Amino acid sequence: MSDSNPRHAAMAASTTQGVDADDFAGALLAGLNAGRKQIPCKYFYDAEGSALFEKICALPEYYLARTELALLARHAEEFAALVGADAELVEFGAGSGRKVRLLLDAVVRPRAYLPIDISIDCLLASAARIDADYPDLIVKPVIADFSRPLALPPVTRGARRRIGFFPGSTIGNFTPEAMVRFMRNAARLLRGGGLLVGVDLVKDPAVLHAAYNDAVGLTAAFNRNLLARANRELGAGFDLTRFHHHACYNPSLQRIEMYLVSAARQQVRIAGRAVSFVEGEAVHTENSHKMTIEGFRCLAAKAGFAPRAMWCDVQRLFSLHWLEAN
């Protein structure tokens, strides 16, 4: 890209906050040496993990992506009216950027797009595609862990207010307490604007089980990619065939819990350190909380948002919420 183009200069001036190349190694070792082994789910999304997740989204069992996309497409004009003209859009956990295009196409004169993600390569590739496809839009990637408090660049000149977009029910990966902490920070960043957020709903556990245990094994591969990533990046010695994928619904906590289960007694070296597993030992890799509509609205209000509009499909599988940050 040519630096003479101010739009491209903005792309080049991406900001990085709280992302350390050693984070994965440190988090992996700390989690696997804890009393109950765990790996933070934010490390799923390296290039290979992101590609696997895009394939998962196309599976017939995985209702979340297609239901949310249908809601976004059906109500795009309503979202645009709430957002207003000349807005700056901030996407938390930008991923491929597929969903935000529905907003960018509907909103009147969007001024800037700030995608936030921890996966550097995927973020910059997605931002570059948006930059190329929307020539009048300023694109400013922010490489950051949005689960932690963060700052954003000053609001773009000409933008009337800042709007947040958090699709995919990614908010469900937080505990309820962490959801409130995230939303409090988001409300501060978006003051005077709003947040459009996707929330997966409580439903028949059989539907949830199928979504996280697909017949072709893509979710299992996605889960095991955490170990494959450790092999690629840290020279770890995980044998992926010796770990089973396990995902189950916990009705008392209203969440899917995902694990990697050791198939045998084994020892693996990671960054020169040995980690032992007993047969049947589980490594917790993800929670995905399912909410009631009223339950989520109460959490949002507790965090300082004013819950306003809500959209839901006829089967009540998934919901989109418009929250105002006054």
Short structural summary:
By secondary structure, the chain is α/β, with parallel strands linked by helices.
CATH class of the largest domain: Alpha Beta
Considering the protein shown, what is the CATH homologous superfamily of the largest domain? Vaccinia Virus protein VP39
Radius of gyration in whole Å, from Cα?
A: 20 Å
Query: How much of the polypeptide forms β-strand, as a percent range?
Result: 15-25%
Structural class: alpha/beta
CATH architecture of the largest domain: 3-Layer(aba) Sandwich
Chain oligomer state: single chain
Q: Looking at CATH, which topology of the largest domain would you report?
A: Rossmann fold
Number of helical runs? 11
Uncertain segments: none
| Average pLDDT score | 93
Task: Tell the overall outline.
Answer: globular
Query: How many DSSP-defined strands?
Result: 14
Series of secondary-structure elements, N-terminal to C-terminal:
HEHHHHEHEHEEEHEHHEEEEEHEE
| Major sheet details | 9 strands, mixed
Question: Residue share in helices?
Answer: 25-40%
Could you give the distance between the termini? 39 Å
Q: Can you tell me the number of structural domains?
A: 2
Report on the structure:
This protein folds into 2 domains: 6-20 and 53-203 and 292-324, Rossmann fold (3-Layer(aba) Sandwich), CATH 3.40.50.150; 36-52 and 204-289, no CATH class. It is built from 11 helices and 14 strands. The protein has helices at residues 6-12, 23-32, 47-56, 63-74, 76-83, 100-106, 120-133, 176-189, 205-212, 218-234, 293-302; strands at 15-17, 87-92, 112-117, 138-139, 142-144, 161-166, 194-200, 243-250, 255-262, 266-270, 273-277, 282-289, 306-312, 318-324. The mean pLDDT is 93. The chain is 36% helix and 25% strand. The strands form 3 sheets. Strands 1, 2, 3, 4, 5, 6, 7, 13 and 14 form a 9-stranded mixed β-sheet that branches. Strand 2 (87-92), helix 6 and strand 3 form a beta-alpha-beta unit. The radius of gyration is 20 Å and the shape is globular. It has 326 residues and is of the alpha/beta class. The two termini are 39 Å apart.
